[in-house]
């Protein structure tokens, strides 16, 4: 069909068929968007070719948006479970390298071909580059071409089938992950207290440093029967009643500092109101509440809580606002409109996507990926395109803002670009791999295919056993870590639609750089055998 020779037409035909097949369920199992790669394999076998730029653009967009999404949680995740996930990655890479060495000895495979099988089984382009540089042999490319197709397909099948085979409860895993996240940001509530502590009476809220001492916020005070909105200069008197907002632990500290709890409620001062305001003004993004207080102090504004990514956070003076935060404020009705303008309150502005930060981040990632470190004459390390873009996007999302540039993206914009990139990437990878399957099979027989398949599946099985039996890792984080250990972006693409949480993406981003470095080192060691 001559229309299929038009690459742009063939691209969207592959995507359409991939979605149709991906939505079909067999015994509750579906491939979702990852079905695109299987359609692309068939098209590639019959001569349909995607321009390399399609795969590159898809890869860059997908990896960049994953980094933007995972960046803020990556650093916290690394502190909490980084060591566990790194051990998982080490098990996968080292076991794959040991199996490659055994294949060299038992089956008398040429070292360059075996190393190619290893890098293809782990779908690692940086590993392939390091192997070609180390051996200088075309055998590396041959081995890579044999193992790569199943390396792509095998990881996808493994992560899609693992929950079914092990009967893993993904909803429960999702709930457990969300609960563990909430532990870092405990639920916020409020209570009323009577000022009884003699050491507190007669002192201002600023002198007492209530936020610093308790991590709670005094949002209202009733003195002599009159409710007021407090400021740092407000004095607390014996018998005053305060309303404090904070976590359970913070409220316990307030009770120790102030006095006993009471059922008496402090009403909102007449002429005041409480509103939730959406942060959409770039001027306040990445500013601390202490800095913002300099703008809002004349309006007697009290910020009682901040909602971010579905989590309530107690405001502290050093907390920086992010685009899309929802802040609950109390101030006079006369000033509320001005205060809302300070923070933005414009939901339409959030839906506007500025492509300049995206393009700038990708350019920076490209140059970081090109940067290489030389360790003598035998070992050179660089992050490559994927590692460079992923690293930069995570760092930029953590920074949040540089001058007028907002690096973060709204959830809807991120999802759209990530899906677009993913579809392009799977179509490009699939057609390229499909063009080689029959040819490599006819030339090198079935044995090398089987060895390549074993190098893909066995290390993942070992890693899954270690994660499940020894470390009791959440199954969603485990699947993300396995795809990162296998340096498999298509694998992550298969896991990503299985959950609404960021667990797989964060785990992938945590182990990917470690796995890439380990693989390059193992490639260098194996190359020395030849």
TrEMBL record:
One of its GO terms (molecular function) is monoatomic cation transmembrane transporter activity. The chain crosses the membrane at residues 6-22, 29-47, 53-75, 87-107, 142-162, 355-373, 379-396, 416-438, 444-466, 473-494, 506-527. It is found in: Cell membrane. It holds the Pfam family TrkA_C. Coiled coil: none annotated. The keyword Oxidoreductase does not apply. Keywords: Cell membrane, Membrane, Transmembrane, Transmembrane helix, Transport. InterPro entries: AAE_transporter (IPR050144), RCK_C (IPR006037), RCK_C_sf (IPR036721), YidE_YbjL (IPR006512). It is a multi-pass membrane protein. Residues 178-260, 263-345 form the RCK C-terminal domain. One of its GO terms (biological process) is potassium ion transport. The keyword Transport applies. PANTHER family: K(+)_H(+) ANTIPORTER SUBUNIT KHTT (PTHR30445), TRANSPORT PROTEIN YIDE-RELATED (PTHR30445:SF3). Belongs to the AAE transporter (TC 2.A.81) family. This is Transporter. It comes from Plebeiibacterium sediminum.
């Amino acid at each position: 069909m001559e229309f299929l020779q038009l690459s742009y037409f063939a691209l969207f035909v592959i995507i359409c068929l991939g979605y149709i097949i991906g939505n079909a369920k067999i015994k509750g199992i579906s491939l979702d968007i990852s079905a695109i790669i299987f359609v692309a394999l068939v098209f590639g076998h019959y001569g349909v070719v995607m321009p390399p730029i399609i795969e590159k653009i898809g890869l860059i967009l997908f990896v960049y948006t994953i980094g933007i999404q995972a960046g803020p949680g990556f650093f916290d995740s690394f502190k909490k479970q980084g060591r566990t996930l790194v051990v998982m990655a080490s098990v996968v890479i080292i076991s794959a390298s040991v199996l490659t060495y055994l294949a060299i000895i038992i089956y008398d495979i040429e070292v360059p071909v075996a190393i190619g099988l290893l890098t293809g089984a782990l779908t690692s382009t940086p590993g392939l580059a390091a192997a070609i540089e180390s051996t200088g042999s075309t055998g590396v490319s041959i081995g890579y071409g044999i193992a790569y197709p199943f390396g792509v397909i095998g990881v996808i099948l493994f992560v899609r089938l693992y929950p079914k085979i092990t009967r893993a409860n993904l909803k429960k895993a999702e709930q457990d992950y969300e609960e563990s996240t909430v532990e870092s940001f405990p639920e916020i509530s409020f209570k009323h207290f009577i000022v009884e502590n003699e050491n507190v009476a007669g002192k201002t809220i600023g002198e007492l440093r209530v936020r610093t001492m308790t991590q709670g916020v005094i949002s209202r005070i009733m003195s002599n029967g009159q409710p007021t909105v407090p400021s740092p200069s407000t004095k607390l008197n014996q018998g005053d009643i305060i309303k404090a907002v904070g976590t359970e632990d913070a409220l316990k500290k307030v009770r120790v500092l102030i006095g006993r709890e009471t059922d008496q409620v402090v009403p909102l001062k007449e002429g005041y109101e409480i509103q939730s305001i959406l942060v959409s003004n770039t001027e306040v993004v990445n500013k601390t509440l202490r800095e913002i207080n300099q703008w809002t102090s004349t309006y007697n504004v009290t910020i009682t809580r901040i909602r971010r990514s579905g989590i309530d956070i107690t405001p502290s003076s050093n907390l920086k606002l992010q685009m899309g935060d929802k802040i609950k404020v109390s101030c006079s009705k006369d000033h509320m409109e001005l205060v809302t303008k300070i923070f933005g309150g414009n939901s339409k502005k959030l839906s506007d996507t500025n492509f300049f930060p995206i393009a700038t981040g990708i350019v920076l990632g490209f140059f970081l990926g090109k940067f290489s470190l030389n360790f003598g004459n035998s070992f050179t390390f660089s992050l490559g395109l994927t590692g460079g873009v992923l690293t930069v996007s995570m760092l930029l999302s953590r920074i949040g803002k540089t001058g007028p540039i907002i690096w973060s993206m709204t959830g809807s914009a991120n999802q759209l670009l990530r899906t677009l990139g993913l579809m392009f990437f799977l179509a490009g990878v699939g057609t390229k791999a499909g063009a080689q399957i029959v040819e490599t099979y006819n030339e090198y027989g079935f044995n090398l295919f089987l060895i390549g398949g074993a190098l893909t599946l066995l290390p993942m099985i070992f890693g899954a056993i270690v994660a499940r039996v020894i470390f009791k890792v959440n199954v969603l984080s485990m699947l993300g870590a396995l795809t990162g250990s296998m340096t498999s972006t298509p694998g992550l693409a298969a896991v990503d639609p299985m959950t609404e949480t960021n667990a797989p993406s964060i785990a992938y981003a945590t182990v990917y750089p470690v796995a890439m470095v380990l693989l390059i080192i193992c490639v260098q060691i194996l190359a020395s055998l030849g």
